[in-house]
Amino acid sequence: MRHTPHYILDDRDEVRRLVRENPWATIVSNVAERGIVASHYPVLLDEAASTGDEIVLVSHVGRPDEQLHRLGEGEVLVIVQGPHGYVSPSWYAPGDIVPTWNHVTAHLYGVPEILDDAENFRILCELTDHFERAMGEEARSLAIDEEYSRRVAQGTVGLRLRVTRVDARLKLSQNKSGEVVDRIIDQLEGDGPYAHAGLAREMRRVHDPRRS
Prior knowledge:
The chain is α+β, with helices and mostly antiparallel strands. The chain has six helices and nine strands. The longest helix is centred in the middle third of the chain and has 16 residues, at 117-132.
């Protein structure tokens, strides 16, 4: 990402929060015979496998994506994208005409570990249960028909990524005055063409945590 020191996000807890709240990630690899390849899968934090300030992700890919990426042979990039949106200069002071795009983004690097079948199935169960919790009494589990679920799981490959490098940005109008920031938040919370309540919440977290 562009080197913008005043937007760098180096708080590991905030990066973990970004992953928790935005689990749909992009996995990017540079493969000799194909060049750059990308796939999209959900990721979870593996809290049990992490030590200290370490960030550990677990996920899976559908076959044959593990071959497409040559997983386990080299470093991959996992992109986690939080709320983002257009910021119109009409929300700025008179005479300011340059727009921007606010965003929260993390680039996470590491060499993935390929999981065995048993651990892959466990992770698939965790992924399903994690997202099904919101369904309440309607929630479904792979355990309902484990034999069938295990057959389906054979079409996937589980992976664990111990993040060795983080490059994250929190670009939320930190270079603007408080008055302008308030106007931007008001517009994002409104009903205009670029309204984005999630981006407004992120801006409140940065500029006035008491209001987030």
